[in-house]
């Protein structure tokens, strides 16, 4: 297995690790929390994307914690260090276990819930299932919003390749095709953590991102909802008018679709300073 980037090791050393037992798995759902409680902010919960882990937020956590927030980042069931829900195939099967875990580790007042890609679907579905869970939703690079499939992306297989160098070459290709607008921004840390996360992905048959599952869930969500995409997001490049219409028709308190210039699907990593600034601005927006 590819080693951890130094930035991950350093950030992990600053966190408290919380393990929430996952029934029927013999394992746990793993959370990391960075606490800097100032200003009376709601707890901030981060849900990562598919084939990922909490490290999808590697370049965001310090900025978010330094704003005075208690930041909780999970390895979703079936990803990273968390156990898998027995028999689970997609995001819908994770919800009961994830909701129980979230309520056990972050009890009490509503949180601010931020999801990226697959995690954006999970966040919206959680709030629809449990109104009052979140004070606000910020959904980043979210699929599941239209009945037409997202754009086709040229992703290549790597598990059959015996040599690590060949595997890393495919991972770099896939990052360029799916996650980054500018391949020159794929640094060694991004390549390492993507390879490591992909090795631990046990939910490889995901299909619900090709449906409008999130749009239908948002019809039941009353809290403020913000959407963020990179302007070159491979899934929706050239289709943002369609997306805006879907968001406006679905979310009852939709606060807008925000496009980050010059970045692709993994906007929180590719252009972290701009993303962090925008996210904090949205989180600090006045309540309805």
Automatic annotation (TrEMBL):
<dbReference type="InterPro" id="IPR000073">
    <property type="entry name" value="AB_hydrolase_1"/>
</dbReference>
<dbReference type="Pfam" id="PF12697">
    <property type="entry name" value="Abhydrolase_6"/>
</dbReference>
<dbReference type="InterPro" id="IPR029058">
    <property type="entry name" value="AB_hydrolase_fold"/>
</dbReference>
<keyword id="KW-0378">Hydrolase</keyword>
<feature type="domain" description="AB hydrolase-1">
    <location>
        <begin position="44"/>
        <end position="275"/>
    </location>
</feature>
<dbReference type="InterPro" id="IPR000639">
    <property type="entry name" value="Epox_hydrolase-like"/>
</dbReference>
<dbReference type="GO" id="GO:0016787">
    <property type="term" value="F:hydrolase activity"/>
</dbReference>
<protein>
    <submittedName>
        <fullName>Alpha/beta fold hydrolase</fullName>
    </submittedName>
</protein>
């Amino acid at each position: 297995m590819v080693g951890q980037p130094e930035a991950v090791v350093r950030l992990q050393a600053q966190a408290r690790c919380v393990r929430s037992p996952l029934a029927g798995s013999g394992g746990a759902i793993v959370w990391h929390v960075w606490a800097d409680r100032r200003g009376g902010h709601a707890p901030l919960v981060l849900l990562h994307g598919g084939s990922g882990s909490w490290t999808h937020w590697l370049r965001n956590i310090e900025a978010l914690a330094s704003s005075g927030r208690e930041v909780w980042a999970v390895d979703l069931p079936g990803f990273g260090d968390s156990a898998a829900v027995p028999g689970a195939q997609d995001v819908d099967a994770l919800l009961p276990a994830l909701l129980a875990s979230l309520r056990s580790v972050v009890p009490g007042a509503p949180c601010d819930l931020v999801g990226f890609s697959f995690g954006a679907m999970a966040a919206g579905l959680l709030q629809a299932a449990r109104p009052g869970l979140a004070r606000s939703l910020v959904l980043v690079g979210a699929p599941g919003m239209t009945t037409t499939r997202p754009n086709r992306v040229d992703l290549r297989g790597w598990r059959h390749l015996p040599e690590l160098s060949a595997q890393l070459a495919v991972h770099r290709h896939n990052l360029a095709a799916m996650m980054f607008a500018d391949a020159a921004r794929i640094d060694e840390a991004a390549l390492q953590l993507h390879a490591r996360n992909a090795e631990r992905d046990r939910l490889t048959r995901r299909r619900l991102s090709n449906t409008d599952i999130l749009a239908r869930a948002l019809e039941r969500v009353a809290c403020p909802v913000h959407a963020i995409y990179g302007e070159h997001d491979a899934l929706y490049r050239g289709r943002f008018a369609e997306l805006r219409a879907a968001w406006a028709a679905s979310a009852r308190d939709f606060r807008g679709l925000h496009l980050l210039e010059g970045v692709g699907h993994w906007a929180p990593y590719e252009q972290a300073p701009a993303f962090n600034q925008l996210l904090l601005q949205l989180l600090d927006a006045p309540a309805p």
